[in-house]
Amino acid sequence: xxxxxxxxxxxxxxxxxxxxxxxxxxxxxxxxxxxxxxxxxxxxxxxxxxxxxxxxxxxxxxxxxxxxxxxxxxxxxxxxxxxxxxxxxxxxxxxxxxxxxxxxxxxxxxxxxxxxxxxxxxxxxxxxxxxxxxxxxxxxxxxxxxxxxxxxxxxxxxxxxxxxxxxxxxxxxxxxxxxxxxxxxxxxxxxxxxxxxxxxxxxxxxxxxxxxxxxxxxxxxxxxxxxxxxxxxxxxxxxxxxxxxxxxxxxxxxxxxxxxxxxxxxxxxxxxxxxxxxxxxxxxxxxxxxxxxxxxxxxxxxxxxxxxxxxxxx
Length: 314
Known about the structure:
By secondary structure, the chain is of the alpha/beta class. The strands form 3 sheets. Strands 3, 4, 5, 6, 7, 14 and 15 form a 7-stranded mixed sheet that branches. A 6-stranded parallel sheet has the order 10-9-8-11-12-13. It has a two-stranded antiparallel sheet with strand order 1-2. α7 links the parallel β11 and β12.
């Protein structure tokens, strides 16, 4: 099969389009003919060696966590899927989605939303589950609460806006001038242009502040967080890490960080929201698999709106 592999850590040029062997599946896995994948910042952070203490020095590696495609083989222990099912989901760490075939654990997949293309579906898993788990599990979001999403036009942020609205919150989105109309179209009740105003100096206060781009800390935004409010990020700085430890044992405002945990149940929930028209997918650009290096380079500019999709096979 064709795949994009890395044989060392480095710049985007280390991504090489090559022939490799198809993966062999375990009893609880599906063999998926990958139709599409997508780029997440963690992919290029792994590629650059920023997580090498976790990912190790064994090469070659195939990156890519998001996949959408068709089931072409099932392990002996698989019960929820059959040959020909169109699915979307996540590969196991550190990836495997940047290939024509991928092994996907049964409990990390769900049937693809029927109203999405493969490219759209592949743009969903990691970022949508990150947004859902941040707001629902870390923020304990409730109907009527006020929520601010920093980075509302990003991959995670665009889903967070829509999920917060679906869960009944009053949502403020923070983005740049050029993305304000998009953020409004996602359902925000209010928008803040960060090039004109620092939301941390706002007069409003929020129950939850979700920093989808990891640019702030609790100490920087505490005046606009309610006394028992929660600040959440998926990109913890040393300051945020310390704040999370300290506030866990103290009353009042909390700082939290977490890492997304892919699972079938949450993918099914997101699928239902998508099919009900409560969530739409924002794709900035689509690249063919053989141009993955260009897709990574664009993602690294941190200017992408929504997601970058990768078309793998027709």
